[in-house]
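Bit of a strange request maybe. I'm writing a small parser for structure token strings and I need a real example to test against, not something I typed by hand. Could someone generate the tokens for this chain?
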Amino acid sequence: MSAMTFETIVASDAPKAIGPYAQAIAVGAAGKVIFCSGQIPLDPVSGEVVSPGEIRGQTEQVMRNLSAVLTAAGASLKAVVKTTIYLTDLREFAAVNEIYGRHFPDQPPARATVQVAGLPRGVAVEIDAIAVVPA
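Reply from user aminoacidic:
Good idea to test on real output. This should exercise your parser:
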């Protein structure tokens, strides 16, 4: 039986962690499971919020950031099996759902969407993910 390994993922094409957490952790023995921290709409170069007050632009940036983290882990959005979407206003759900759906056209992952009182840096959306990459 293979020993379980843990790998901290650092994606240069996604914003650096803004607190004491990793962008993602990959766990593997045969294949690997990747646990991605929530991504918010930060520009990975400037560290600034993208599209303040505009949910569509924020959601696009979140999906780009999530994709970059997965790429750094040796995966892609196609490997995602579960996401959680955090919104500060559920009335924005349809717009977020439209953008999100474009990134998962074939087999969308399981998902939960919740409204929260607030998110880091005053953003409107955050998405985390779990991906599985077979051996």
